[in-house]
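To the wet lab folks,

You asked to see what we're planning to order before we commit. Fair enough. Below is the target structure as tokens, and below that is the sequence we designed to fit it. If anything looks off to you, flag it before the synthesis order goes out.
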């Protein structure tokens, strides 16, 4: 099956084989170009970030909450409720920098529980005493997991990461590039 898929993709002129990598939790890496000096950028970033080791969402007048040590940072957006969904980690060099956006650890734990619910339902249906088990349920459980991952978590990650990256771009005054 994979051979047919690769043949179909490579036989279309101007296309390259698609790389499909299933991850339970989405993430993205970006690079950026500084408009000011590193010192000015870090000073502005420090002014707009409330120090917090725990990376929890609380009401604040700053744009971010987190830790900035030297030229490395680990922050969350200060938007109440949804700001903590994505954690931004990165490094600021002389004229460039990198940032990695990923789902915060707390939300990873909660989402792991949600991911297991379709499997628990399948197992309970298999071991139930009723004789109404349908083999189609074996395909429904993975389908539900994929639906949760790509529809709900994927859209939430895309929305919150965009908002967080926009805030980071505004605070640092940088030009973002996809890595």
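Sequence we intend to order:
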């Amino acid at each position: 099956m994979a051979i047919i898929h690769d043949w179909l993709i490579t036989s279309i002129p101007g296309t390259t084989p698609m790389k499909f990598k299933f991850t339970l939790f989405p993430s993205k890496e970006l690079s950026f170009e500084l408009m000011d000096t590193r010192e000015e950028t870090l000073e502005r970033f420090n002014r707009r970030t409330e120090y917090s080791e725990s990376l929890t969402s609380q009401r604040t007048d700053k744009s971010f909450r987190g830790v900035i040590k030297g030229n490395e940072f680990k922050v969350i957006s200060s938007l109440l409720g949804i700001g903590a969904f994505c954690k931004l980690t990165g490094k600021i060099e002389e004229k460039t920098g990198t940032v990695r956006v990923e789902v915060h650890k707390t939300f990873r734990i909660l989402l792991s529980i949600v991911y297991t619910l379709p499997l628990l339902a399948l197992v309970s249906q298999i071991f139930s005493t009723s004789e109404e088990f349908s083999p189609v349920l074996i395909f429904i459980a993975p389908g539900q997991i994929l639906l949760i991952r790509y529809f709900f978590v994927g859209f939430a990650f895309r929305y919150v990461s965009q908002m967080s990256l926009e805030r980071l771009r505004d605070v640092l005054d940088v030009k973002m590039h996809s890595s």
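Structural context that might help your review: The first strand starts at residue 27 and ends at 34. The first helix runs from residue 2 to 11.

Thanks,
Computational group
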